[in-house]
Amino acid sequence: MLFALLLQGTAQANVQNDLTEEGFIAYVAKLKEEALDKGIDKGKLDEAFAAITFRPTVVTSDKNQPEKKITLDDYLASRVPDWKVKQAVEKYNKHKALLDKIAGEYGVQARFIVALWGNESNFGKIQGNYSVLSALASLAYEGRREKLFKDNFFAALEIIDKGHADVNTLKGSWAGAMGQTQFMPISFLNYAVDYNGDGKKDIWGTEADVFASIANYLSSEGWSSEGTWGRQVKLSRVVPISGLAKANMKPLSYWKAKGVTRFDGSELPNVDIDASLIMPDGEKGRVYLVYDNFHTLMKWNRSSYFGVSVGYLSERIKRGY
Questions:
Q1: Sheet strands (E) in 189-242
Q2: Distance between first and last Cα of the chain
Q3: How far is CA 245 from the centre of its chain?
Q4: Residue 246 CA neighbour count, 13 Å, CB half
Q5: Phi, psi at residue 175, to the nearest 5°?
Q6: What burial class does residue 59 get, using C-beta atoms within 10 Å of its C-beta: 0-12 exposed, 13-18 middle, 19+ buried?
Q7: What pLDDT digit, counting tens, does each position of 179-231 carry?
Q8: Is the Cβ–Cβ distance between 321 and 84 less than 8 Å?
């Protein structure tokens, strides 16, 4: 086993050693040729590419993402502590007029806009300070998910080309997620909104654009303001199916017949709505019935922990703390 671990460590070191500054420079030169072929303004390209540097730290971050298994309780305690709930309620009240206007136009309840804003960037306080172009070019050069990062790299260049940001303001996380919404560049092109009409889709500094962009994403992906996200429930016996597969969505009457109750033990409501039953930590952990809107949240982030944290924060905002 020790020998196998040594071999594995040597192989990883060799892969890391293959990622040289010279190799990166040659790779970026090819990216620039492709960008020119896509018709992006040469002057803006020259400025953008002059600022691109190899960032091996983002490759290391991508390879060494935490493997430690945490529970949903741990996750909620870290992602939705009481101080964040308090801030969420304050932000909701401060921006209520604007949020309500956007909520009405896009059909997305304001509390979910604020909950996503809080979860993604702590209401704009934590956006990341990496050069998005350098991060994406470095991750594409590493090669494991080259197409994903190349496509987002070219999308980032398009954002600059269209004047929504410049090289100095195009900052984000080590993986290229940007601004208060933490959109990847492709998501920015698909969903970002210039709500204040100043000619820029500013998800870094303009809250109106941030709120509308979040609402536009959810609305475009099927959100319904007529419903909510889900509810925590209890099981009185083993259920035959669970999980987010569409085939496992059943009417509430089905789950009621299988012994699923509200969390307080009372019967589920008599409402004609389909739901999925999820157990992120197994039957001994928290159990939820989640609705179509939760499936939309899964398009934003495929983690059920993330989806539950957004729903939970939205409920706390609704209660006022």
A1: 230-235
A2: 52
A3: 20
A4: 1
A5: -95, 0
A6: buried
A7: 999 999 999 999 999 999 999 999 999 999 999 999 999 999 999 999 999 99
A8: no
Pair 97, 143: CB distance under 8 Å = no
List the Cα angle 58/59/62 in 5-degree steps: 85
Look at the block and give the residue holding tokens 């040289």: 20
Length, in residues, of the chain: 321
Do the Cβ atoms of 172 and 179 come closer than 8 Å?
yes
Rounded to an integer, what distance in angstroms lies between the CA atom of residue 138 and that of residue 56? Answer: 7
Q: What is the identity of the amino acid at 235? A: L
Query: How far is 54 from 219, CA to CA, in rounded Å?
Result: 37
For strand 130-131 and strand 171-172, is the pairing parallel, antiparallel, or unpaired? antiparallel
**Nearest one of 313, 264, 252, 288 to 122, comparing CA atoms:** 313
- Distance CA(66)–CA(185), nearest Å, equals 24
What is the H or E stretch that residue 77 is in? Answer: helix 72-79
The H or E element that residue 251 is part of is: strand 250-251
pTM listed for this prediction:
0.92
Classify residue 9 by burial, with Cβ atoms within 10 Å: 0-12, 13-18, 19+.
exposed
